[in-house]
Amino acid sequence: MSLLLDGKQCALNIEAQLKVKIDALRDKGERLPKLVVILVGTNPASVSYVTNKAKACTRVGILSEIIQLPEISSEAAVIAEVQGLNADPSVDGILVQLPLPKHIKSKNVIETIDPDKDVDGLHSVNVTKLVMNERGFVPCTAKGVVTLLKAYNVPLEGADAVVLGRSQLVGRPLAQLLSNENATVTVCHSKTRDIPRHTSQADIVVAAIGRPKMITLDYLSPKAVVVDVGINKVDDKLVGDVDFEAAWNVVKAISPVPKGVGPMTIVTLLENTMDAYTWKKEHHG
Ligand code: NAP
Q1: What is the pLDDT of residues 257-280, one digit of tens each?
Q2: Residue among 192, 209, 242 to mutate when testing ligand 1 (max atoms within 8 A of CB)
Q3: Which residue from 104, 112, 151, 253 could staple onto 82, CB 3.0 to 4.6 Å apart?
Q4: Number of domains in the chain
């Protein structure tokens, strides 16, 4: 029988722990952590992601604000908004919802965020810290995957891990994190010649490619712990990158879609915001 890597339950457990911490702050009359999300335009998927993030903040007691800017906003206007939040001592975390409209260079906006408030972990300072294995912010989905594996006591040290996908947002930071955890990591991508040759030997397979149900049993062995990051809409249903039905009860463990990595991504944003708050208090009182 396969073990279900239940991201929903794992996220609820972490939320409960965060709520205890924040309730204690409130009881002591202390300032509460605050996340601000900047949303440019009205892309329905982005609106839904941002709303879910704000709801999650409310559940644990983190203050949140959504700054909604019109689609036609200039890059300078978005940057000015970020600069204002950098200077605002009541703001601990800043997240700019991606993708931004095409006329705005995401990199210019991300690089404006104070690295100590960069709870999405995309600023080059935080990317470097991850590579150097130093304390910093790690992109939420990548960190959430490792938190999920650890919650189920999946051994990472010495494990052979294959990460499918190498995006800045998921694959690359995840490969680095797993390497920092002393796993032996192989990264596969669209130009990899024979993906099953790698995945069929692996102890851990993480799929983050955005190809519905591409990872079939041909790719997996019974010893595999499989984490499915993919979110694909097929006939109005959400499916992952892994053929869950085929893999279930064959592989050692597998995360579902939905209720797998999705909730872990959101709860990691809450964790990162709490970390930003704690860091600020330790260093600036
Ligand atoms: P992305 O930026 O489009 O990157 C996809 C990666 O997959 C690229 O590295 C690409 O290779 C590789 N790839 C594409 N087709 C492939 C194939 N046939 N064989 C092997 N590799 C292939 O996507 P992303 O932002 O990383 O997201 C990946 C998936 O995760 C999407 O379904 C996305 O919706 C989902 N996602 C979920 C969460 C969550 O919270 N659960 C968060 C973020 C993303 P190249 O580099 O060679 O192009």
Answers
A1: 999 999 999 999 999 999 999 998
A2: 209
A3: 112
A4: 2
